Amino acid sequence: MRDKNGRWILGYNQFLGSCSILDVELWGILNGLVIALDRGFDSLIFLSNNLEAVQAIQGSYSRVLNSILVRRIRQLLAKPMQWSIHHVSREDNKEIDELTRMTIDKKKEACNYLECPQYGLGHNLK
């Protein structure tokens, strides 16, 4: 997660076992949303390199509109706040890939990162 100026606030990951790539992305968005709401954020920007997840949350991807994960995300996003979700290329989402690799390598429970992973990624999001 980043603040409105693009500075790193918090990263998170969790090993989910065997599930689809779309479900992994939706779980990541849901968990991030819960963390952000618990911390009192009222303005959120989600970036995802999974177009299906972006479209599902926006309501334009019918295959998963009835997914429990999508419904829960949309329910939380109905709270009074400003939010947007954007599709980004894999190259522009390297931090997320690094957090994902860290999860797969360690098969850990949920973990929060107060600092950006050491991947040369401490830069601001532009």
Describe what this molecule looks like in 3D.
It is a single chain. The relative contact order is 0.23. The protein starts with 10 loop residues before the first strand and ends in a 13-residue tail after the last strand. It contains four helices and four strands. The protein has one domain: Nucleotidyltransferase, domain 5. The radius of gyration is 14 Å and the shape is globular. The chain has 126 residues and is of the alpha+beta class. A two-stranded antiparallel ribbon has the order 1-4. This is RNase H type-1 domain-containing protein.
Summarize it.
The protein has 126 residues and is of the alpha+beta class.
CATH level 1 class label = Alpha Beta
Measured distance between first and last alpha carbons: 14 Å
Oligomer: single chain
Task: List the secondary-structure elements in sequence, H or E.
Answer: EHEHHEHE
Count of DSSP-assigned helices: 4
Low-confidence blocks of residues: 120-126
- The CATH architecture category equals 2-Layer Sandwich
Strand content: 5-15%
Domain RNase H type-1: 1-102
Organism: Gossypium schwendimanii (Cotton)
Pfam families: RVT_3 (PF13456)
GO molecular function: nucleic acid binding; RNA-DNA hybrid ribonuclease activity
